[in-house]
Each structure stands twice: as structure tokens, then as C-alpha cells.
């Protein structure tokens, strides 16, 4: 069984949350993060301690995406920015 690339899995999870096709996303994932580097970090090291401590987090299409060293992906909705109020 062939494993899915981390970038492909991220896009599939986001489009499933949004209920859209990947081509309908207005920003491409590769414009937000270096997919080759992400793939290399999650699959390219034999150093188990490094992989165990690895965590990459970025925002994409209104979601916070977290990828750990094993390639596990967590997609969380990005919290709305808190409105700042000025007190005079």
C-alpha cells in the first residue's frame, strides 16, 4: 500500500472540512509552506529522537495545521482574532 504525501493529506482534510474540491481553494498549499521540506522532515530522518520532537505548525485557509514527526496531521479551526478595543 502506497502512503499519501503529507501535503496531499493536508489538502484532502481541508477540502473535506470545507466541502469543496482542491482546485476551489484560493491559495495553494505550496504557496504557504515548502512541501518538499515538510515531506523530508516527516519521512526523511532516521533519528527517532528528532522525529519524536518535531512539530511544524502553520495556518492555511483559515485552519491551524500541525504536523508532527510521524506525519500525523491535526487540523484545527483558526480562532477569530480578538477585536482590540481602545480605552481612552
UniProtKB/TrEMBL annotation:
This is Halobacterial output domain-containing protein. It comes from Natrinema salifodinae. Residues 6-76 form the Halobacterial output domain. It comes from the Archaea. InterPro entries: HalOD1.
Amino acid at each position: 500500500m502506497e502512503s499519501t504525501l503529507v501535503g496531499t493529506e493536508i489538502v484532502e482534510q481541508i477540502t473535506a472540512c470545507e466541502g469543496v474540491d482542491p482546485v476551489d481553494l484560493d491559495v495553494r498549499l505550496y504557496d504557504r509552506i515548502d512541501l518538499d521540506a515538510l515531506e523530508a522532515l516527516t519521512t526523511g530522518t532516521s533519528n527517532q529522537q528528532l522525529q519524536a520532537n518535531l512539530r511544524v505548525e502553520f495556518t492555511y485557509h483559515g485552519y491551524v495545521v500541525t504536523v508532527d514527526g510521524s506525519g500525523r496531521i491535526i487540523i484545527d479551526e483558526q480562532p477569530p482574532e480578538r477585536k482590540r478595543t481602545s480605552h481612552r
